[in-house]
Amino acid sequence: MIRRDRRFANWGAARGALRGARRLPPLRAAQAPWYSGDFGPRFNAMIEPPSVDAPPPPLFTLLWRAWGLRCAQCGQGKLFRGWFTMNDACGHCGASFQREPGFYLGSIYFNYGLTAILVTAIYCTLNFGFDVSPEILLPATAAFTVLFPLWYFRRARSVWLAFDQYFDPRPRPKLQREAKPASEDQQP
């Protein structure tokens, strides 16, 4: 027996060629949401940003956005316009990245902490595990100690912003692409 599915009504010619198949009536807009431009709530939730009153995203989502150097609130706007130059606000949702003076001093803890853990682990592993001489290790780890924080600077700031958004969520601003209310001169 052939399973009749209205979502595949355009396959009527192939079904009609089968012996004993019945022809299905044409689809109405209520049966085919893709005709009306509405793709259903699950798909619309994927393409539309959450509302202003939506709960904050989970920590993993915020950290994923931080690793991609994206806005912690919407996940779309870029945090940096250069290696060390940060945008003032999100280009997509308008969220301000400049919370207060000295806000990003906490990102130094992420940067310093990860650098110290990595240098200690690399030095101990190579010195005690592989018998690499300290004359080679000290300049190498010193260079790593200088260069790694410069590379990790942007990620440390974005992780700090993500943790702040998780533990002290800011209200979501209205999106710039939302329809603006009609002005007084356009009303009758």
Describe the protein in words.
- The protein is mainly alpha-helical and 188 residues long.
- It contains 5 helices and no strands.
- Helix 3 (59-67) crosses helix 5 (134-167) and helix 4 packs antiparallel against helix 5.
- The protein is elongated.
- It starts with 11 loop residues before the first helix and ends in a 21-residue tail after the last helix.
- Mean pLDDT is 77; it is low at 11-18, 32-37 and 176-180.
Q: For the report, how would you describe the main beta sheet? A: none
Strand content: under 5%
Mean pLDDT: 77
- Overall 3D form: elongated
**What is the subunit organization of this protein?**
single chain
What is the tally of beta strands?
0
- Measure the end-to-end span: 61 Å
* Low-pLDDT ranges: 11-18, 32-37, 176-180
Tally of DSSP helical segments: 5
List the helices and strands and how they pair.
Layout: H1 12-16, H2 41-47, H3 59-67, H4 107-129, H5 134-167
Summarize the structure.
This protein is mainly α. It is built from 5 helices and no strands.
Keywords:
elongated, 5 helices, mainly alpha, 188 residues
